[in-house]
Specification:
22 strands; 487 residues; alpha+beta; 17 helices; 7-stranded antiparallel β-sheet
Length: 487
């Protein structure tokens, strides 16, 4: 899961781009990059957080009215700076790209590009393959004026060759900017317009909050399987290229996206309120003895407040979060996550001492974080600790961009809630029911009949995920985790 931004403005974009990238830092903390264009490409990429990568010297040389920004959370590659986005190539025309998602046939594409097209992809980042496939189609028209139809045919060519999830923004030097989503719309992408004076400005972003940060008040989703092309004269062209069942990722609403964002016509905060309301009703039927509802910050707050209201018990902020520790879910490897959680949260003893506690979190993945938090709460004097997840049990690897790749990592893969409670040292574990989870998120946009729930069900909507592919991903992920443990 990453964050991507593209800006086609009428003034220097680096300031807007930097501010917008800060709003999607939560989508990736491994690396970040910024590229601008003023007749030539200027780029700065690095490992770490945005604030550590960019300084005044970098900002001053990133000149131009066009820019791409990216925050990376690696699902392909080893997290080296060579894999940081954006990427650019100088032929044909000069092109740059950034994307959010995960290309499931990336290894095959790398081999095909080298053997059939004599193109070396020099990184382990899948957007490099997407960019070269797009460019390879347009290479045949390099001596002719590029039309919107050619651009859309290049996207169509990408759809034919690239599998998996991808929301892509590509800039073509002196021609324009094109953005497109995969045919299933697995990953979000929004389009913003700003009309001030005679010359409009346009932008694309993974979340609406980024467009707001740049001053774009008019915004809408890029439709799944469609492309939007802004040409050099600022004319907007749009084409529906592929029609597949719409399957946006439900985990965006559960965990990844910011609560103030809108994705696919759904406000993330409201979806979490609805998830809390649904889970609260289930917990009420169980008649648990609960004195206090406490969220695991930050994503669980909205749901926990609603659960407390339904149970008619106190809601308290009992866990204080260290703002200088990143999101543990997207940190590489269990040892790093476990060390981080001890520094990330600190209990307020007065909230827990002698109380029957209901902890609410967005999900339970490996169980390590949950177990650490529960032990922390018990050490603070809690009498009993129940643990509620406002998502259903995670049981299958995601191949579309979330780093929970091996089935063996899931505490719920072969365990009942009662068995999980023993493993994480809780008095009980309560999960959201799968149908209730989907119904709660869909309530704001009934047009979405189903979400991608592959990590909950093992049903992959693209229909091309084989057992061999899952085994290969699992082997690669195990090897990477072994390297992290050794390091």
């Amino acid at each position: 899961m990453c964050g991507v931004i593209g800006v086609f403005d009428n003034e220097e974009v680096v300031g807007k781009l930097y501010n917008a990238m800060l709003t999607i830092q939560h989508r990736g903390q491994d690396s970040a990059g910024m590229l601008t264009y003023d007749g030539r490409y200027h780029i700065k990429k690095g490992n770490g957080l945005i604030r550590d990568i960019f300084d005044e010297r970098n900002i001053l040389r990133l000149r131009g009215h066009v820019g791409l920004g990216h925050t990376r959370y690696p699902t392909v590659g080893e997290g080296s700076v060579e894999d940081a986005q954006p990427f650019w190539i100088n032929y044909p025309f000069g092109m740059a790209a950034a994307h959010n998602g995960n290309v499931t046939n990336f290894a095959d594409l790398k081999r095909e590009l080298l053997e059939k097209n004599h193109i070396l992809t020099n990184s382990n980042c899948d957007v490099e393959a997407i960019l070269n496939i797009f460019a390879n189609y347009l290479q045949g028209f390099r001596t002719r004026p590029i039309t919107p139809e050619m651009i859309f045919n290049a996207v169509r060519y990408v759809y034919r060759r690239v599998k998996g999830s991808y929301s892509v923004v590509i800039h073509i030097a002196n021609i324009g900017m094109v953005a497109f989503r995969d045919p299933f719309g697995l990953r979000p992408l929004l389009f913003g317009t700003q009309v001030e004076g005679m010359v409009p400005a346009y932008a694309f972003a993974s979340e609406s909050v980024s467009l707001h940060a740049m001053g774009f008040s008019q915004m809408r989703d890029v439709e799944p399987g469609s492309a939007i092309f802004v040409d050099r004269e600022r004319h907007v062209h749009e084409c529906q290229i592929s029609r597949k069942p719409f399957r946006p990722c439900i985990f965006e609403y559960i965990y990844f996206a910011r609560p103030d964002s809108y994705l696919n016509g759904i406000n993330v905060y409201t979806s979490r309120v609805e998830l809390g309301r649904s889970l609260g009703r289930k917990i009420r039927r169980l008649q648990l003895k609960v004195d206090v509802v406490v969220p695991v910050p930050d994503s669980a707050r909205a749901a926990a407040i609603e659960i407390a209201n339904i149970l008619r018990v106190k809601y308290r902020e009992g866990l204080v979060k260290n703002r200088y520790i990143g999101r543990t879910f997207i940190m590489p490897g269990d040892p790093v996550r476990q060390r981080s959680i001890r520094h990330k949260l600190n209990p307020i003893t007065e909230v827990f001492r002698g109380k029957d506690i209901l902890l609410v979190d967005d999900s339970i993945v490996r169980g390590n974080t949950s177990r650490s938090i529960i032990q922390m709460v018990r050490n603070a004097g809690a009498r009993t600790v129940h643990f509620a997840s406002y998502s259903a049990p995670l049981t299958h690897p995601c191949v579309y961009g979330i780093d929970m790749q091996t089935r063996n990592e899931f505490v719920a893969a072969n365990s009942t809630p009662e068995q999980i409670a023993v493993k994480i040292n809780a008095d009980s574990v309560i999960y959201q029911d799968l149908d209730d989870m989907e119904r709660a998120v869909r309530r704001q946009n009934p047009r979405i009949r189903h979400f991608c729930k592959a990590c909950f069900t093992g049903n992959y909507p693209t229909g091309d995920i084989s057992r061999h592919m899952l085994d290969t991903i699992e082997a690669e992920r195990d090897a990477q985790h072994a390297l992290i443990r050794e390091g």
